[in-house]
Amino acid sequence: MRFPRELVEEIRSRNDIVELIGSYVNLKRAGANYNGLCPYHSEKSPSFTVFPATQSFYCFGCGAGGDAVTFIMRSENLDYPEAVELLAKRAGITITSDEKEQGGISKRRIYEMNLAAAKYFRNCLFDQKLGRVGMEYLSEKRRLSPAVIKHFGLGFAPESFGSLTDHMHKQGFTDEELIVGFLCGKSQKTGRAYDYFRNRVIFPIINTSGDIIAFGGRVMDDSKPKYLNSSDTPGFKKSRNLFALNYAKNHCSERLILCEGYMDVIALHAAGFENAVATLGTALTQEQARMMAKYTKEVVISYDSDEAGQAATRKAVRMLSEVGLDVKILRMEGAKDPDEYIKKYGADSFRRLLDASRTGFEFKLESTLQKYNLSVAQDKIKASAEMCEYISEEWSSAARDVYIGATAARLSISPEGLKNDVELLRKKKIKSFNEKTSQQARLGAMGVGDKINSDGIKNIKAKAAEEAVIGLLLTYDEYRDAIIRGKAELSVNDFVSEFHARVFDKIIELQRENQFDFSLLGEFFTPDEMGRLQGLEQKRRVLTENGMQVFLQCVATVKEEKISSSSEANGIDEIKRLLEQKRNANK
To answer: CA–CA separation, 226 vs 441, rounded Å?
Structure first.
């Protein structure tokens, strides 16, 4: 969808980027700009910078960058039109443009379809005949009140292969849309569509904007799988969403409770703990960890106490710590999960458990000590090595000293010896990290592993010249005008890199329409690509030599390298042709 330039500028002007990003990231003033920890990758030192003067942002660590629209696209997992619409809504601006996406099935269509399906599931649940089994499970076995059932929009999918599909057809949705939205499948034998969710209590999954993006379903008999969750769709990525975050985000500024399942979360909310969320049938992901870091300071992990739950806890502790969150682990005795515990002992007892949660270090120490027989020397050495490995990952020297003292006391060994082992590990890791970073920097400069511009490695000189040209075109009006007026002759065909050619084409297209604005590029390029473009612009802004002569020289280099590359390619093709002739002559 193409938005008028005036509309995009109005939306941007009403969404100050410092205020916008400041609602997601803790920013601190640094001269004329603002710095903070990047929300898109794990870091201890701020490399994320917001530039008020240009209403843009850039992370010098991971390369994420762009403007307010790009930030919302990346942070809320939205496409360009949705991000513009969200910012417009935030600013009180009404957009009347046609929202329909050309080709394919849009997120908006998925959301409309899910809303219709959720209403159907809800009506089935409250139907005394169709929903009897589901309502008995929720109200009698799980002891949920009608208010809680309605609050979470719970529903029921009848034991039928086509009732939902038939209903959705009447609502105007096609089989193709239902299949893409993971509401139905197609039989290989008959070719007919059939309902995915059958004889299941339905849990709608709602994003922070209030859209129903997917469903989870718990079966009412012994069928497998016990829980069926929507697969990824154009409107849903399970690795980037959390169940009940739409409610918890308003109650979690100090603490979030991370659970394993839907029912644990619902039981906690019903008991007054409205800061509980759960992953969606998968292990915790980095995207989910960063999402939680946007809303809270501390996460209490409340996973099952079995071996699988403990393994998941260890992984979650590491991921959450990496994004700067304080992590604690809930220890429950006498119940397997929060739902059962609250039913047995009540909400007040659970609240005391929360306040007494162990830190990640305490959890690691206890679980390590339980693995080994400390009366055996070899086992004590293994326990010591495991704890040293854990402590060496801690960036705070004060925290390391505390951990070393506590570990040494429990293992009855010298703190000095433990500290020496920890520091030796840290030196090795720092050396390995520096070597890896140096290698990545060298390879990055050459373009090795560049997923955005894979052509760059073919011609390093052309890549550098093209990047300079693109950076100058993004930064200065006069160079875009120079191309259009013929003062500098350059075309799409002069680029070695397909990515740079696409960027050049869109920049000039927008300039010819008198509509060039960095934000408008977001319609044509992904957030990762926009980050690359923001980086190229930032690189030119810090350089003092950006005059017309520099631009014309870079243009000349681009054209020369294209001719050189074409000549080499033609030469190789000619050699191949002669060899083929020789082989044919010898037959």
So the answer is: 47
Which tens digit of pLDDT belongs to each residue from 83-95? 998 999 998 888 7
Predicted TM-score of the model (pTM) = 0.63
Phi, psi of 299 (to 5 degrees): -125, 130
* Rounded-to-integer distance, Cα 286 and Cα 38, Å: 13
Same domain, 259 and 176: no
Q: Please give the pLDDT value at position 99.
A: 37
479, 568 Cβ separation under 8 angstroms: no
Please report, for the domain that includes residue 258, its CATH number.
Answer: 3.40.1360.10
Mean pLDDT of 413-422: 93
Give me the half-sphere count of Cα atoms (radius 13 Å) on the Cβ side of residue 208.
Answer: 18
Residue 408: both structure tokens together: 């040494």
Average pLDDT over residues 213-231: 91
pLDDT of 449: 55
Is pLDDT above 60 for 102? no
Burial 420-434 (b: 16+ CB within 10 A, else e): ebbeebbeeeeeeee
Do residues 35 and 27 make contact, with C-beta atoms less than 8 angstroms apart?
yes
Distance of alpha carbon 24 from alpha carbon 18, whole angstroms: 10
Whole-number Å distance between alpha carbons of 304 and 338: 9
Of 100-114, 361-375, 459-473, the range with the lowest mean pLDDT is 100-114
Dist CA 90 CA 11 (whole Å):
9
CATH of the domain at 558: 1.10.860
Same domain, 520 and 549: yes
Q: Which domain holds residue 35?
A: 5-91
Task: Find out whether 103 and 23 touch, Cβ atoms under 8 Å.
Answer: no
Indicate whether 350 and 376 sit together in one domain: no
Q: What is the 3-state secondary structure (H, E, C) of 448-459?
A: CCCCCCHHHHHC
Taking all residues of the chain, what is their mean pLDDT, rounded to a whole number?
A: 86
Query: Of 47, 114, 58, 104, which Cα lies nearest the Cα of 79?
Result: 104
Name the pLDDT band for 572 (thresholds 50, 70, 90): very low
Q: Is residue 583 part of a domain?
A: no
User: Looking at residues 240-267, what average pLDDT do you find?
Assistant: 92
Q: What single string gives the DSSP state of each residue in 211-278? A: -EEEEEEEESSS-S-SEEEPPPBTTB-GGG--BTHHHHTTS-SS-EEEESSHHHHHHHHHTT-TTEEE
Confidence category of residue 6, pLDDT binned at 50, 70, 90: confident
Q: Which residues of 516-527 are buried (b: 16+ CB within 10 A; e: fewer)?
A: bebbbbbbbbeb
* Position 98 confidence tier, pLDDT thresholds 50, 70, 90: very low
Contact 215, 203 (CB under 8 A): yes
Task: Locate 252 and state its tokens.
Answer: 């979690």
Show which of 196, 216, 236 is a domain's final residue: 236
Question: Are 294 and 354 contained in the same domain?
Answer: yes
Residue 45's pLDDT is: 82
Among 210, 178, 212, residue whose Cα is nearest residue 197 = 178
**Is 80 exceeded by the pLDDT of residue 2?**
no
Which residue type is seen at 211? Answer: D
